[in-house]
């Protein structure tokens, strides 16, 4: 769904209805620190921080980021340092604690299952992020947008306090250098260390080949798969073979991109299907072919509990009601190079005029590419940063065309957009959603302008209407 959309409120609501609620772990350090700078009016961040086992670490974050009463509207948010391979102790603390906070709140006051979604391509904060959610008792780790072969073994080590490393994918490597991140749970916790439960690991995939590779060659146990089709929101896997675009400029998916479910079933692990499955009939269909269940994203993205701003939700729901809501599978928007689904909405980065007016910059940096500099050290570049900077770092001009700052845009979508130095301009949102956006208004009850997560679940779990031939 994007940064912070599936927040702790939404995950908690879904979990309390008897299903797995999932929080987004992407850029959660920015999300938490900006909530604190807005004054944490309901006190949730501070309550969660007070439950972090190492009080002095939590206090350092409060001292740095909490603003009683909130910052002035024209004041920019205090930035979080961009992730690097040699992250400071302060940034590591923030990464661990922000992940702890989100999961602590999602699990608070009930015993339902909670998961967290991470992107494999965002590698530098991965290990401390995993440790943070494990400290809060996370039940499931979901990870896609790459090949997360190393994650199961990392979870095994973190649970028992073993130091662990994770290889970092680096471009332009001329000299043989092993780039990796390192984290030592016992060194981090000191006297507060205690063993942790190892969560189940679900890999998000789009091919049976990848499922088989992970089942056989992952560093530890893979507990199941989430199979995402090309109509799901967020990043999509690129089509197989040579890229072809349709008349709208979207990637064309064909028979080769269909997942072989027979081969998935042969692996013998649980699997869930994702991508426009939020219908009673589609749930039954998924179960009938062997799926444990379905993953739902877009339907929840515009419910009351999600973090998308009320104004944006209202605009999308109005478009859905008048049959004008649509998404564009943009082949170049994301700095990752993966196709990225973008809801078409005036005033957002999907609007070419808004996109053209934005000054290119990169100050969150989660989707930066890592490359080897001439001296052998690690460099960082983003196709959405200023073009001259990108080229100076060895990037190609062609790779910058159409790239959008997904990081800043997604933060703006949940009301946490950065205010720029002039105090008057704020980042424009970018909304990602699946093809199901066209029909999200179906969850609105007569006379209502909003719907809840429970409304979505009740709809999906309702009996399948009998057919005329039944």
Break the fold down into its secondary structure elements and pairings.
Elements: H1 8-16, E1 21-24, H2 28-37, H3 44-50, H4 55-65, H5 89-107, E2 114-119, H6 126-135, E3 140-144, H7 151-160, E4 164-167, E5 180-183, H8 185-189, E6 200-205, H9 208-217, E7 224-228, H10 261-267, E8 271-274, H11 280-288, E9 293-295, H12 298-301, H13 310-321, E10 327-330, E11 340-343, H14 352-357, E12 369-372, E13 378-381, H15 387-392, H16 406-413, H17 453-460
Parallel strand pairs: 1-2, 2-3, 3-6, 6-7, 7-8, 8-9
Antiparallel strand pairs: 4-5, 10-11, 12-13
Describe, in plain words, how this protein is organized in 3D.
By secondary structure, the protein is α/β, with parallel strands linked by helices. It has a domain at 8-309 and 444-460: TIM Barrel (Alpha-Beta Barrel), CATH 3.20.20. Helices cover 32% and strands 12% of the residues. It is built from 17 helices and 13 strands. It has helices at 8-16, 28-37, 44-50, 55-65, 89-107, 126-135, 151-160, 185-189, 208-217, 261-267, 280-288, 298-301, 310-321, 352-357, 387-392, 406-413, 453-460, and strands spanning 21-24, 114-119, 140-144, 164-167, 180-183, 200-205, 224-228, 271-274, 293-295, 327-330, 340-343, 369-372, 378-381. Strands 1-2-3-6-7-8-9 form a 7-stranded parallel sheet. Strands 4-5 form a two-stranded antiparallel ribbon. Strands 10-11 form a two-stranded antiparallel sheet. The longest helix has 19 residues, at 89-107. The radius of gyration is 22 Å and the shape is globular. The two termini are 37 Å apart. The model has no long low-confidence stretch (mean pLDDT 94).
């Amino acid at each position: 769904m994007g940064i912070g959309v599936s927040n702790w409120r939404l995950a908690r609501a879904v979990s309390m209805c008897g299903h797995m609620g999932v929080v987004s772990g992407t850029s959660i350090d920015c999300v938490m620190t900006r909530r604190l700078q807005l004054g944490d009016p309901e006190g949730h961040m501070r309550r969660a921080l007070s439950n972090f086992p190492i009080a002095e670490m939590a206090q350092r974050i409060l001292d740095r980021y909490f603003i009683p009463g909130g910052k002035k509207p024209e004041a920019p948010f205090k930035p979080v340092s961009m992730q690097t391979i040699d992250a400071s102790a302060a940034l590591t603390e923030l990464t661990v604690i922000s992940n702890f906070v989100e999961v602590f709140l999602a699990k608070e006051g009930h015993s339902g299952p909670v998961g967290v979604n991470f992107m494999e391509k965002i590698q530098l904060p991965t290990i401390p992020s995993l440790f943070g959610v494990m400290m809060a008792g996370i039940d499931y780790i979901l990870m896609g947008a790459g090949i997360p072969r190393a994650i199961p073994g990392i979870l095994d080590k973190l649970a028992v306090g073993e130091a662990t490393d994770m290889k970092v994918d680096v471009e332009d490597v001329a000299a043989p250098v092993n780039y990796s991140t390192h984290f030592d749970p016992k060194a981090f916790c000191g006297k507060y260390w205690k063993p942790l439960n190892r969560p189940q690991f679900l890999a998000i995939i789009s091919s049976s080949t990848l499922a088989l590779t992970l089942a056989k060659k992952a560093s530890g146990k893979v507990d199941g798969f989430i199979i995402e089709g090309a109509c799901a929101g967020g990043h999509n896997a690129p089509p197989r073979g040579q890229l072809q675009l349709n008349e709208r400029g979207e990637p064309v998916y064909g028979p080769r991109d269909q997942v072989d479910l027979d081969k998935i079933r042969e692996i013998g692990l649980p699997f869930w299907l994702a991508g426009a499955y939020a219908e009673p009939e589609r749930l039954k269909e998924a179960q009938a072919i062997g799926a444990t269940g379905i993953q739902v994203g877009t339907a929840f993205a515009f419910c009351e509990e999600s973090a998308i701003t009320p104004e944006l939700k209202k605009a999308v729901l109005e478009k859905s009601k008048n049959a004008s809501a649509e998404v564009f599978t943009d082949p170049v928007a994301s700095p990752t190079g993966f196709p990225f689904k973008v809801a078409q909405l005036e005033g957002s980065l999907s609007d070419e005029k808004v996109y053209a007016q934005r000054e290119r910059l990169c100050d969150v940096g989660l989707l930066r590419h890592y490359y080897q500099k001439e001296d052998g050290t690690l460099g960082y570049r983003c196709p959405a940063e200023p073009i001259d900077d990108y080229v100076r770092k060895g990037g190609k001009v062609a790779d910058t065309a159409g790239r959008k700052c997904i990081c800043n845009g997604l933060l703006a979508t949940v009301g946490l957009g950065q205010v720029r130095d002039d105090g008057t301009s704020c980042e424009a949102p970018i909304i990602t959603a699946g093809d199901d956006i066209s029909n999200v208004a179906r969850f609105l009850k007569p006379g209502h302008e909003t719907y809840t997560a429970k409304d979505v679940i009740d709809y999906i779990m309702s009996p399948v209407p009998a057919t005329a031939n039944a």
